[in-house]
Amino acid sequence: MSGELQNIPGYWTALTHSFSCLLYMSMLPKRLKGWKFWAAALALFLPMIPYMDRVAALSGFPFNVGMSIFAIWTAVPFLLLCREDGYRGVYYCARAFILGGFAISLAWQLYMFYARRVVFFERLWVQAVFILVIEGAVFLLMYALERIHLKESAEMPVTRAACVSTVAIALVIYILSSLSFAAVESPFTTQRPAEAFNIRTIVYLGGVAILYAHHLQLCDAYTLREVTALQNVVNMQYANYQLSRESMEMVNRKYHDLKHQIAVLRSEIDSKDKTAVLDQLEREIRAFDIQCHTGNRVMDAILTRKSAYCQDHGIQFTCVADGHALDFMGVVELSTLLGNALDNAIEGVSKVAEPEQRVIHLSVSQQRGFLRMSLENRCLEDVATGEALPQTTKADRSQHGYGLKSIRSTVEQYGGSLTLKAENGWFTLGVLIPTEQEKN
Questions:
Q1: C-alpha angle with apex 190: 189 to 195, nearest 5 degrees?
Q2: pLDDT digits (tens, 9 = 90+) for 322-332
Q3: pTM of the model
Q4: Of 48, 264, 359, 429, which one has the greatest count of Cβ atoms within 10 A?
């Protein structure tokens, strides 16, 4: 091989960017499963190889136009094959484009270094193995870094601002990496091929680092918002519990006072009409005697308040609960768990049109060292399965799911698990938590 440095072949550029896109697509939910996904991805990525071969033969402005089309082309698989919105697809496509640029730039620069010195490296299969090993190391390292924050990345919504800022950063990185290959002298370019290769690789490496740091910043901001929102939910449920306890005590005092007063009045009058009025009054105040007695004062206060709400709004609420099974939980955690769970159930049945179908059933028990809680309610459609949070049907997605997230956070705090299931018109929330004795 001659001493002159050769630029990256188009087919290697296409293959590397395809691998980079597949890396990020593997971490996103997909529209197709199994071989269907790979067949569709192959159909979208394969035509890039002959296209980039022709683009690589160009220079100057035509080359940059061709690369711009190629960059847009790499976004198509994200939009068609991944079950995400457009902003999220473009966001990860921009990150994949810069990562692919760094991987092929580094691999080709290292290959050219050895190919100019060792004849053995001129063989095509050696070139393929060498480049694939270098790129594989780059992609494996990036995949390991992405896996660290995979949960936050999956839950974090990608806004238009985040998408635009990421695309802008990627565009600046690409322009800076290409300046040294332009036939224009400037303070930021060089006419020496070896230096141009170094500049391109270093700029792409900086781009990967900047975009990763930008991604972590977005994840941290999202996590902070989530923590703040969940804490507000916890505080609200605890305040509701305190209000429920105070209201229950006041109602109980008034109820018992009225019962005694009615008994006294009944013994002092003989008129049948007055007796009928007292009977009616007694029946009306009996409706306030809905206090629940489960053995746990926190649960009693919450269930009493929710039962009163269900009674006023035509919801059938039944409960079979051993309150002592919840004694190991703190007041704040228990009020958060029960309050949010019952609020979600009430919201779900409120959407059911038929009054007789507005049914909620709660069961709490302790079995073999585990707390088992099951909350069932009628729902309109199948919205969730397994441990994943259901998709929202609300217009404002950013305000969705904090109740369930708070429940899941509380359950995980005690080393338990949360399952959600919706089928045959019933939504079931299941909680399984080891008790303190089982933990010990």
A1: 115
A2: 888 888 888 88
A3: 0.68
A4: 429
